[in-house]
Amino acid sequence: MTLSTQATFAIGAFASAALLSGVGTWLVGRWSLDRGFVDRPGGHKAHGRPVALGGGIAVTMAVALPMILGVAAAKLLSTNCPAWIPEDLVRHLDGIVSKAPVALAVAAAAMGMCAIGLTDDARPLHPGLKLLVQLAIALMLVVGFDLRLMSHLPAVWSGILSVCWILTLTNSFNFLDNMDGLATGVGMIAAGIFAATAMGAGQLFVPVCCCLLAGALAGFLPFNLHPARVFLGDAGSLVIGLFLAVFTILTTFAAPSQGQRPFGVLAPLVVMAVPLYDTISVVYLRWTSGKPIWAGDRRHFSHRLVQRGMGARRAVAVIWLATLVTALPAMILPAADWPLAWGVLVQTILVVVLVALLESSGPA
Predict the structure, then answer these.
(1) Cα separation of 8 and 77, whole Å?
(2) Looking at the domain assignment, is residue 266 inside a domain?
(3) What is the helix (H) or strand (E) element at residue 300, kind and residue range?
(4) How high does pLDDT run on average in the chain?
(5) How many domains does the chain have?
(6) pLDDT value at position 305?
(7) pLDDT class for 364, splitting at 50, 70, 90?
(8) Pairwise CA distance, residues 156 & 223, whole Å
(9) CB distance 199 to 10 below 8 Å
(10) What separation in angstroms does the CA of 308 have from each of 46, 228, 362?
(11) Mean pLDDT of 323-335
(12) Rounded Cα–Cα distance for residues 13 and 9 (Å)
């Protein structure tokens, strides 16, 4: 498929999801305030007034509904295709239709994750129960629909790796959603980078799905910037992580003109380096202090920046920029030879180390 056709569908997906998410967030925000479905201040929470929950509903629907409608439209067109449909698209209709079971499964998984998140937002659930539901959703995708990372490995090891990747990213974004606009912006950056990488590999389904997610987050972001009017809640942060995990599994990290290169598989780790750093650091801090790793607190990367004198908006912007710095080079990994790939990986590690040193530095 030509780059112009890919770009047309990507832009259309981004714009439609942004519109759906923006309208949906406005409606959900009003409904949540009317019904008292709000996040109230207190404890480790920094906001000083009740904030509407339920933003995750708008984000989830803005991605899942166009995904379902898209594969349904491809199914109809594949059996009776009008003459005005571009030939470049016609050649991909059968491939899109073949993705229908996966698309429906991913949409269902996202809705299930949104539902457990909404339940937890309304009345906190036991962390073990939440993890068990997440595990069931991950197993459904990996075992039931063969969504596996590094499929050249033995099926058992590939399956275990894939389940761990889904659970890690899902909970990383749940952890990252600790300051207004933070998880939303990082998710939008990651989705955009993965879309560009998949387009470079000649794919259509995955970049369109990534653009749907990026658009949904762009439509939600104005409501979520500090001071936020609507929160994602677990119903949104869990879904963002799930979508990104699944879309990276579906991405072919290889450049067609360069043949199969092994270094593309590093792209998800490079793009997600900063969110993973936040998760690892906060888990370590809670564990060493004897606190439950699931207990909310103000030990996150963003909070540590604020404690060192940054305002909330500036702290969020710093993390967005750090994510962008590590993520952008990931687009060249599918076509990279080993010196360039190692250079990208070393740069990513150095950026994370620099961030860790700067945000943990104290008085001389």
Answers:
(1) 18
(2) no
(3) none
(4) 88
(5) 1
(6) 86
(7) very low
(8) 43
(9) yes
(10) 16, 22, 8
(11) 87
(12) 6
Structural domain boundaries enclosing 40? 3-258
Phi, psi for residue 33 in degrees, rounded to 5: -65, -40
Which tokens go with 194? 């993965």
d(CA 277, CA 280): 5
Strands (E), 33-158: 38-39, 51-52
φ/ψ of residue 262, rounded to 5: -80, -15
pLDDT digits (tens, 9 = 90+) for 290-312: 888 887 777 788 888 888 888 88
Residue 268 lies in a domain: no
- Is residue 78 in a domain? yes
More confident residue, 77 or 232: 232
Tokens encoding 37: 């479905």
Rounded to 10 degrees, the C-alpha dihedral 287/288/290/296 comes to -50
Contact at 8 Å (CB) between 138 and 249? Answer: no
Residue 363 is predicted with a pLDDT of 47
pLDDT value for 128: 93
Is residue 230 classed as helix, strand or coil in its secondary structure?
strand
Residue 314 lies in a domain: no
| Residue 11 C-alpha from the chain's centroid | 18
Under 8 Å between Cβ of 355 and 274 = yes
- Residue 98 CB partners (closer than 8 Å, separation 6+): none
Contact 74, 93 (CB under 8 A): yes
Instruction: Give the type of residue at 7.
Output: A
Please, which residues have CB within 8 angstroms of residue 131's CB and are 6 or more apart in sequence?
A: 167
C-alpha–C-alpha distance, residues 59 and 56, integer Å: 5
Per-residue tokens: 254: 């290889």
